[in-house]
Amino acid sequence: MTLFKNIYIFDLYQYFILLRHPLPCRYTLAGDNSMFREPMTSTEEKGNLADAAYGRLKRDITEGHFTPGDKLLMSSLKARYEIGAGPMREALSRLVAERLVTAESQKGFRVAPMSVAQLQDLYYARAQLEALVTELAVQKGGDNWEAGIIAAAHTLSRVTQVQSAEEMLSVWDSRHKAFHNAIAAGCGSDKLMELRSTMLDQVERYRQLWLRETVFSTDALALKRDEHKDLVTVLLSGDSQQARAMMFDHMMTPVPIITEILRARGLV
């Protein structure tokens, strides 16, 4: 009995050790089925840190914590994110490839500029793609697809029950994306879904400006609710051409709003 008690206590001790050591590592089963920590290699650890730096910096840029043209000083970034220069440079390089950051020879990095021309180009391309995906989804989608759209639309319409403004923003954004994902899911093309995800990434910095303007406005939110209701009706009617045209118009509605915000805030 004492032997089993000791084994149980030892297992509990191992469990609490795991909780108290959040440093990058792997956990591996030993021959006796107990777990021991297997340290990550320096390459793996650096990769994890670079991923973390990339995610946090990208979010801060897209959400407007950094404005177009801001200089991204390595010393400031290291202090802000508590991450070393190596992983930080890797994160910056990835964001340069995504055109969210620009690299200047001998001058370092800056937040990429924004422009009305880029806004219009990105949204037009995204609207065309979303319209095509919607047309295919109406043609190919079955009962499960329709049920998914109805459920997502209902969930989105219930967002007004959320209390705080910031929670409202987060919940509405998440459910709005889920609604459009439910529509696109019926298109039957993994490649189109991949391109769609890439396009969403590229418009995100502009979309965030529109998001706050919409979610925090009762009138704008009511207008979106009506648009979504009409869209669902057309989707379920089976008219793929009308659904395509309506989705294109729906995707383009933020452009004049974002254009006004960009100019009012001196971002272009």
TrEMBL record:
Transmembrane segments: none
Gene3D superfamilies for the chain: GntR ligand-binding domain-like, Winged helix-like DNA-binding domain superfamily/Winged helix DNA-binding domain
PROSITE patterns (UniProt xref): HTH_GNTR (PS50949)
Coiled-coil blocks: none
A Pfam short name: FCD
InterPro entries attached to this UniProt entry: GntR_C, TF_FadR/GntR_C, Tscrpt_reg_HTH_GntR, WH-like_DNA-bd_sf, WH_DNA-bd_sf
Domain of life: Bacteria
Boundaries of every HTH gntR-type domain copy: 47-114
Keyword hit for Transcription: yes
Annotated GO MF terms: DNA binding; DNA-binding transcription factor activity
Alphabetical UniProt keywords: DNA-binding, Transcription, Transcription regulation
PANTHER family the record matches: HTH-TYPE TRANSCRIPTIONAL REPRESSOR GLAR, TRANSCRIPTIONAL REGULATOR, GNTR FAMILY
NCBIfam families referenced in this protein's UniProt entry, alphabetically: PRK11534.1 (NF008576)
Protein name: DNA-binding transcriptional regulator CsiR
